[in-house]
Amino acid sequence: MSKTEITAAPGIPTIVITREFDAPRELVYRAYTEPDLLVQWLGPRDLTTTIDRYEVRDGGSWRYLQTDADGNAYGFHGVFHGDPSPDGIVQTLEFEGAPGHVCLQTSRLPERGGKTLVSTVSVFQSVEDRDAMVASGMERGVRDSGERLAELLARLLAS
Amino acid sequence: MSKTEITAAPGIPTIVITREFDAPRELVYRAYTEPDLLVQWLGPRDLTTTIDRYEVRDGGSWRYLQTDADGNAYGFHGVFHGDPSPDGIVQTLEFEGAPGHVCLQTSRLPERGGKTLVSTVSVFQSVEDRDAMVASGMERGVRDSGERLAELLARLLAS
Predict the structure, then answer these.
(1) Which residue has the higher pLDDT, A137 or B97?
(2) Global confidence as pTM
(3) Contact A59 B79 (CB under 8 A)
(4) pLDDT tens digits for A98-131?
(5) Binary contact (B13, A11; C-beta < 8 A)
């Protein structure tokens, strides 16, 4: 199975995340944009994601909560920029635990021979913000998300 | 009079613009957020700015047009992230001539001894996008805007 690659080069306010999925891009795009699919893979395995709003359109806003077994909820929200499509999804993201800190994420989903290479470039307001995101333990959530998405896509393709 | 400094370091998808203004931050903040003031300084001297919408609040969207003497109009729009205040203004910006390309701008307005040092950090989706913005001739617009804002603040303080 493919692995998630996470790149955070020193001195540049960017994180690049890539992973290949054994599924056509249209299915990967559905998993990114349909709330009932999104909640099945987004985030660490031990948190439950619930969608508050998810307006998949230019200027549309989204918000979800990730809740742990003790009931602690972590909120995230953002705004889509441009109409999302399999050619790309551009959105801002704010963690509600750190108000005033915003990142801008660009996801591409090119397909090669039936597989889809998803890349997400996140740019932060500063290198310090980027480093804080890395230090927050985001890697576990990113790796869990990648594995869970691969599992979901396999289930969808088998059904 | 102070001059505008523009920094675009190689290999980093960022432009930093700073300029000191001889005015208190509250007045500078008004010039950034009140449409009837904004149109008096924003952009190159030979273009006319008209505001389509300007919702100064968390999640609010804005759009303006800059029109030249021949009637050619250039549209820009974006979304405020967090409630704008003299402590900071965070917003996205898209030039409608290049759809799909977004930048994230963070403006700070710290005051020192009655003067205000405005800094705006713009982060782009890639270094290529940043370089394209620099190559587009944005410097003239930025320098004109800084001079026009200084002139407007002087007028407001004298009135």
Answers:
(1) B97
(2) 0.95
(3) yes
(4) 999 999 999 999 999 999 999 999 999 999 999 9
(5) no
DSSP letter assigned to residue A130: H
Residues in chain A: 159
Report the C-alpha gap between B78 and B92 in whole angstroms: 5
Residue partners of B46: CB distance under 8 A and separation at least 6: B68, B69
User: What's the DSSP call for residue B44?
Assistant: -
Across the interface, whether the CB atoms of A79 and B82 are under 8 A apart is answered no
Relative to beta strand A111-112, strand A115-124 is: antiparallel
Catalogue the long-range contacts made by A101-107 (C-beta closer than 8 Å, 24 or more residues apart): A101/A125, A101/A129, A101/A132, A102/B81, A102/B82, A102/B90, A102/B104, A102/B106, A103/A129, A103/A133, A103/B104, A104/B92, A104/B102, A104/B103, A104/B104, A104/B123, A104/B125, A105/A78, A106/B102, A106/B125, A107/A32
Each residue's pLDDT tens digit, B103-159:
999 999 999 999 999 999 999 999 999 999 999 889 999 999 999 999 999 999 998
Residues of A with CB under 8 A from a CB of B: 11-14, 59, 61, 79, 81-82, 88, 90, 92, 94, 99-100, 102-104, 106, 121, 123-126
Asked whether the beta carbons of A37 and A49 are under 8 A apart, the reply is: no
Angle at A148 between CA A158 and CA A137, to 5 degrees: 170
Identify the pLDDT of residue A137. 84
8 A C-beta contact, residue B115 and residue B130? no
Residues A103/A93, Cβ–Cβ less than 8 Å: yes
- Helix then strand count (H, E) for chain A reads 4, 9
